[in-house]
Amino acid sequence: MPVTVVVGAQWGDEGKAKVIDLLAAEHSHVVRYQGGHNAGHTVVVGTERYALQLIPSGVLYPHIVPVIGNGVVVDLPTLFREIDTLEGRGISCAKLKVSSQAHLIFPWHQSLDALYEAKRGDEKIGTTLKGIGPAYSDKARRIGLRAGDVLDSAAFAEAVRANCVYHNREIEGLGGESLDAEAVVAQFAELGARLAPYVADTVEMLHEALDRDDALLLEGAQATFLDLDHGTYPFVTSSNPTAGGACVGTGIGPRYLTRIVGITKAYATRVGSGPFATELTDELGDKLVDIGREFGTVTGRRRRCGWLDLVMLRKAVRINSLTELALTKLDVLDTFDEVKVCTEYDADGNPVYAVLPGWRTDISAVNDIDALPAAARDFVALVEREVGIPVKIVGTGAERESYVIWS
Ligand code: IMP
Fold first, then answer.
1. pLDDT tens figures, 43-100
2. What spacing in Å lies between the alpha carbon of 356 and ligand 1's midpoint?
């Protein structure tokens, strides 16, 4: 009963979707376990580009059952927009299942996200304003509504109305504009009816799959250092992207996890506020933004860029019990004369760098480890040695085929 977990090892946007796409071929289900439509996943297949926020990346394979697990917060308008777009392009979402225990995002969550951010002024987190934090707060306060609630349409309408009235008081208290409860009830009556056929007891369903010895792939969104507990609090998201969150967010116990893949770029990026020891605020940072096309898929925001930080990566190995790494976007460093990697921090907490010669070769068409320039191989070998777990996949470009199996 092999279960693979894919976890971001940095601050998100590591290229998880491409690795999941690659691994999906040998799995039967791809299960999202936390986060919501704050995530943005892009997979490039031939000339087609698929941008997904909620639906698991594996949906592009006809054999995969895509599952939105209980740990996810679901924005229904986004979900149906994605389904319509995918189906319009010939990709069936008929097998999609949404956990009855997954919480729903409502318009008041989005209003409150913006109001809380505005209230923080200079201290703002830089959230995606998708209502993720407020939806998880309601889950923790035990007042949230869940996907399974749509199955009783009369009770659901009543609960939506009561929830809207309740949240309007807070919105008004923060100086915001209250929502029209009846309009929200009408909108969600329609959305709820459309959701009903997708709702399932996914915990039971996944255990039945495990009993059949099916191979499951658990897909994390965001990343280790955006984790509510282990990230750079308060500049974090409101869920647990770390591997423990994969168990909680799917109902699959830790004993089942056999392979835990950490995804890291060959450099580092972060979107939103918070500490970033190896950040480059000079023209080298701009160069990484340009070549790596480092703009958020969800918000379009420019990502902050810097050198790879192995101190953080070693911590990610411990927190997640990573068994291997996938190193993505190595090709972005192709034109650099020298490449730096932070191997430790000095007594003042400043990064100490190993400086490696650049390879100054276009590696985007390279599929074979022996065809990689020696300097690029030395870079990967240094990461492997310093972090202490094997690198298995090296990403060499945006296309589905652009990767090297390292070991
Ligand atoms: P929230 O998840 O919208 O509450 O945002 C909290 C923090 O997580 C902000 O710094 C966001 O920029 C960051 N964040 C959320 N989702 C992603 C993601 O998918 N990639 C990168 N950063 C993200």
1. 777 788 888 999 998 898 999 999 999 999 999 999 999 999 999 999 999 999 999 9
2. 31
Last residue of one domain, picked from the residues 179, 199, 219: 199
Q: Which two structure tokens, joined as six digits, stand for 54?
A: 């909620």
Whether residues 348 and 232 share a domain: the answer is yes
Q: Which residue in 27, 29, 37, 41 is the catalytic one? A: 41
Q: What is the CATH number of the domain that holds 145?
A: 1.10.300.10
Question: How many domains in the chain?
Answer: 2
* Ligand 1 atom nearest to 128, measured from its CA: 3
For ligand 1, say whether the CB of 126 is within 6 Å of any of its atoms.
yes
**124 in contact with ligand 1, CB cutoff 6 A:** no
Instruction: Report the C-alpha gap between 59 and 52 in whole angstroms.
Output: 10
Q: Kindly state if the Cβ of 125 falls inside 6 Å of ligand 1.
A: yes
Which of residues 168, 184, 199 is at a domain's end? Answer: 199
Q: What is the pLDDT of residues 15-57, one digit of tens each?
A: 998 899 889 989 999 999 999 999 988 877 778 888 899 999 8
**Co-location of 28 and 119 in the same domain:** no
Residues 257 and 393 both lie in one domain? yes
Q: Is the CB of 13 under 6 A from ligand 1?
A: yes
- 37 and 156 share one domain: no
Ligand 1 geometric centre to CA of 348 (Å): 28
Taking the CA of residue 132 as reference, the ligand 1 atom at the shortest distance is: 4
Which among 73, 232, 237, 302 is the best mutation to test ligand 1's pocket, defined by most ligand atoms within 8 Å of the CB?
A: 237
Give the separation between CA 180 and CA 153, rounded to whole angstroms: 19
